[in-house]
Amino acid sequence: xxxxxxxxxxxxxxxxxxxxxxxxxxxxxxxxxxxxxxxxxxxxxxxxxxxxxxxxxxxxxxxxxxxxxxxxxxxxxxxxxxxxxxxxxxxxxxxxxxxxxxxxxxxxxxxxxxxxxxxxxxxxxxxxxxxxxxxxxxxxxxxxxxxxxxxxxxxxxxxxxxxxxxxxxxxxxxxxxxxxxxxxxxxxxxxxxxxxxxxxxxxxxxxxxxxxxxxxxxxxxxxxxxxxxxxxxxxxxxxxxxxxxxxxxxxxxxxxxxxxxxxxxxxxxxxxxxxxxxxxxxxxxxxxxxxxxxxxxxxxxxxxxxxxxxxxxxxxxxxxxxxxxxxxxxx
Length: 331
Known about the structure:
alpha/beta; D-Maltodextrin-Binding Protein, domain 2; signal; 10 helices; six-stranded mixed β-sheet; Receptor; BUG; 331 residues
C-alpha cells in the first residue's frame, strides 16, 4: 500500500513526458519568440511602411502573446531577404514580405541565392497598378500612338524605370518585345529620382506604381497617366486605358504579400493565412493603412500562386530575349 503513491506519481510523470514528446514541434508557435517579418528594401520605403503597418494587426489576429518584428535586409532586388528567409529554420518564425515581379523574374535572368519555387505563398496584401506617366505637355495621348511613333523613329523616346527586375523594368521590356518598338531605357534607383528627372525634362516618361503618383495632376509639374499595365482598369483609374485595350498584352502589376519557406508546417501556414485575411479586414488596419487603401487586394496563397504561374511564360520569354540580345546588365 505504501508504494501506491510513488507508483502513481511515476506513472503520471511518464504520461506527461510522453505527451510532450508526441506534441507537434510547432505547438508553442507563435508565442515562444518573436516572428521576423523580413523586408528586402530599406526602412521608410513603400514595402517597409506596409510591413510595419500590417505587423501589429497580424500579431493581434495570431494570438495575445504573438510578437512580430520587422527586419530589413535590403539589396539585390530583394534577393538578400529572400535568401535569409529560405535559410532560416522552418519553424514559422521567419516570414518574408515578397515583391513581384522581382521575386519571380530575377532568377530567370541571373543566379540568385534563393529559389522562388521554394516559397509557399501566404497571401497577397496589395496589388499596385504599374503606370506609364508623362508630363501633361507630352505630345503623346495614347500608348498606341506612342508605339507607332517610336517604331517610325526608334530610340526617339526615353523612359525611366527602376531597374530590370522592377515592375516598370519588366513592363517596359515586355512592351518592347510585344510591340517591336525600341525605347531608350534610363534606369534609376527609385521613383523619387525618376519623377525628378521626368519633371525636369531629362526623360520623356517614366514607369511608376500608383502609390508613387497618386495625384499626377497635383505634382509640382503637372503629370498624367498614359496607360496602366494591369489586367483590368484599376477602380481608382477608371478613365485610363490598359495596355491590353491598346493592343499590347502587357500585364505587370506590382504585388506585395507574405511567404514562408515550403518547409514550414502546413498548420503554421494556415494560421498565418487566416491571420492575414483577418488583419486586412480589421477596421484599425484600414484606418492605419489609408495610404494603401486603394491598392489593398487580398488573395490567398493558392490564388496568388496561380497569378504568378500565369505570368511565367511571358517572363521566361522576356528573359530568353534579354539573354539572346545581350541586353542584360553586368552582374
